[in-house]
Design a protein that fits this description.
By secondary structure, the chain is of the alpha/beta class. Helices cover 34% and strands 25% of the residues. The protein has an 8-stranded antiparallel beta sheet with strand order 3-2-4-1-10-9-11-15, covered by helices on one side. A 7-stranded antiparallel beta sheet has the order 5-6-7-8-12-13-14. A hairpin with a 4-residue loop joins strand 13 and strand 14.
Length: 625
């Protein structure tokens, strides 16, 4: 989705802005733009396509010299990906000054506002809602940018994260948020404002996170006005849109630059697949108490009694997080014996759900910013549910708006196709289920056995990763096929859907995932000679049934790729290709069985020549409903 970066401080802002935009590229975008407050006024540049086009433009024109600037990567919502629609957008004040703005989110009442501003004489150049905000701030400007932003935001409905410049206040950026994330990094004599911490971490780990309806004014300027070498004075203040002063807590970002760089890998997705053993170790660290044979989840301790007595869990999420939530549904019912269901957050929110007393709503999200998941969370809370977050991004909106939660701690995930976050989400949902199960019906012996296996999991994942080249060779043999099926049962049914999603989103191959038994009820009609059908066929309660389903596909000429348990010699007579995972208890299998499917999707995309980390049309974090 759209990304914002702004800089004010002693350095030339344009190079920092471009560097920031590059760090935001992973979020998905179609155009970019920059505005710098130069001694000759605000200069704006925009480009369609990659940030490097913007960078070349800046280098060739050479007019972007100035210490305060804002920049943006746009993922089109209102109006196509054109130069005119790219941000920043500008407005002219009554006194002839220029306002420039970058905006993430959606202004819902932009049509009446546009009419109002047109009547006032403003001429619009784009189809965007963001331009309305630029012109509204300009209309309301009477010499104080902070005030103009506050009053404009009192008039808008919708979601926004914005950063604003005015040529009358050359060393100032005013930024604000409601419903879209925005963070301010406090660096040496400078401020970096961004929608995502990855654009800040190269400069500082000290940040403040804005809350909804907050406005921050960031000033950094030469005290003695003698030039770039002089001492720089910095100053920031936060207010609400009603101009009430707010005291901000400075927090520390929990990751470093190295974690968001490729480190020798070609793609973030592959790096993150390979990082999974370490990601699981980090997720489990300090959460397993072997002496007592229990799970320790500090984030839940304040609510432990309510959770143990809960009558129902509702998990809401989207995409890959939804698939992890489906596994959570199985885990909570199986291990904790509490009724649970997982829903698409976007559906839950609008279907007038019944929330009984004793309902716990879990929002699962890597980013902690997914608009639908956040909206479902609000809905559940408004109807009286206790809310929990299972989130990766520390300090994100969902993590701040839930009553309690458990972080994944798998490190930043840059690849648009979610991999290590999925495994982290399932690991956390497993921990929560064991935490509750131990306090309800699970015997000490059973809990201890699961904990032991969980601890062995990172090494088991490493064994699966070693098969990457083998998986690649098997994928090569069916890379020309445009339709794939992914089938599994029980805990491995959500894994099958996740495998299909991975393949679709980065290789653009049509794939469907479903319960293996469901195939007979219609989709079997699709199977023809050579159609790749991926089965998760690990040892467990439904193994024989899955083998029968494999037979049904083979009888119709389908090509079988099976994820099977190490040592299962039987499977080879049924499958054209076998990827193995170590033997582990059924509830823990998804964290292993998903790994070959992630690798399969990765190789398929590379073999088809796609840019794995920038899949077409996709955004890393979907912050619009
Ligand atoms: O940040 P979230 O976990 O809330 O994101 C949810 C989905 O948008 C996300 O999982 C998406 O489906 C990924 N592209 C999957 O790889």
């Amino acid at each position: 989705m759209c990304g914002i970066v702004g800089y004010v401080g002693p350095k030339q802002s344009s190079s920092l802005l471009i560097e920031g935009l590059k760090r935001l590229e992973y979020r998905g975008y179609d155009s970019s733009g920059i505005a710098v407050n130069t001694p000759q006024g605000i200069k704006v540049g925009k480009a369609i396509g990659r940030v490097r086009v913007m960078e070349e433009f800046i280098q060739t024109t050479g007019v972007f010299e100035g210490h305060a600037g804002i920049a943006h990567t746009r993922w089109a919502t209102h109006g196509g990906p054109t130069q005119a629609n790219a941000h920043p957008h500008t407005g002219k004040t009554k006194t002839g000054h220029t306002i420039a703005i970058v905006h993430n989110g959606i202004i819902e009442n932009y049509i009446p506002l546009r009419k109002y501003l047109t009547d006032k004489g403003h001429v619009f150049e784009s189809e965007t809602d963001a331009e309305v905000l630029a012109k509204l701030i300009a209309e309301l400007y009477d010499g104080d940018l902070e005030k103009a932003v506050q009053s404009a935001l009192r008039d808008v409905r919708g979601a926004y994260a914005i950063a604003v410049l005015c040529d009358n206040e050359p060393h100032t950026i005013v930024a604000a948020r409601k419903g879209s994330p925005l963070i301010v990094g406090i660096a040496d004599s400078a401020y970096v404002v961004a929608s995502d911490a990855s654009a800040i971490i190269a400069h500082t780990s000290q940040v403040i996170t804005l809350d909804d309806y907050q406005v921050v004014r960031l000033c950094a300027g030469v005290k003695d006005k003698v030039g770039d070498g002089g001492p720089w004075a910095v100053d920031f203040r936060t207010t609400t849109i009603d101009n009430v002063c707010v005291t901000q807590e400075v927090t520390k970002l929990e990751f470093d630059l190295e974690q968001i760089e490729l480190g020798g890998y070609k793609h973030f997705m592959f790096k993150e697949i390979m990082e999974q053993p370490e990601a699981i170790r980090n997720c489990l660290r300090g959460r397993i108490d072997h002496r007592e044979g229990r799970v320790v989840l500090g984030g839940l301790s304040g609510l432990a009694r309510d959770l143990v007595r809960a009558r129902r869990f509702i998990i809401s999420a989207q995409g890959t997080a939804y698939h992890a939530g489906m596994i959570g549904e199985y885990l909570l019912e199986d291990l904790a014996k509490i009724p649970a269901r997982c829903e698409y957050a976007s559906e839950f929110r609008y279907r007038n759900p019944i929330i009984e007393e004793g309902t716990v709503a879990i929002a699962v999200s890597q980013s902690g910013e997914t608009a639908d998941t956040l909206a479902a969370l609000h809905e559940a809370k408004d109807r009286g549910a206790i809310s929990l977050g299972v989130v990766n991004s520390v300090g994100s909106t969902i993590s701040r708006e839930t009553d309690a939660g458990v972080y994944l701690h798998v490190g930043p995930e840059i690849g648009v196709a979610s991999t290590k976050a999925f495994v982290g989400q399932v690991a956390v949902l497993t921990l929560i289920s064991l935490y509750l199960g131990k306090r309800r019906f699970l015997s000490d012996e059973v809990v201890r056995s699961y904990l032991k296996q969980l601890e062995a999991l990172p090494d088991m994942v490493s064994r699966v990763l070693e098969q990457s080249d083998h998986i690649k060779k098997c994928v090569e043999q069916c890379i020309d096929r445009d339709n794939w099926l992914f089938l599994g049962r029980g805990y491995n049914y959500p894994v099958a859907i996740e495998g299909a999603l991975k393949l679709k989103e980065i290789s653009y191959i049509h794939a469907e995932g479903m319960p293996a038994a469901e195939m007979k009820h219609g989709p079997i009609a699709l199977i023809d000679k050579g159609m790749p059908v991926v089965f998760v066929a690990t040892k467990g309660s439904q193994y024989e049934k899955v083998i029968s389903n494999i037979e049904e596909v083979r009888a119709r000429g389908g090509r079988i790729l099976a994820v099977a348990t190490e040592g299962d010699d039987n499977i080879h007579q049924y499958a054209d290709a076998v990827f193995t995972v170590p033997d582990i208890a059924e509830p823990l299998q998804p964290m292993l069985t998903v790994v070959p499917l992630q690798i399969l999707a990765y190789h398929a995309a590379v073999l088809r020549g796609h840019d794995v980390d920038k899949p077409r049309n996709l955004a890393k974090s979907v912050t619009v409903e």
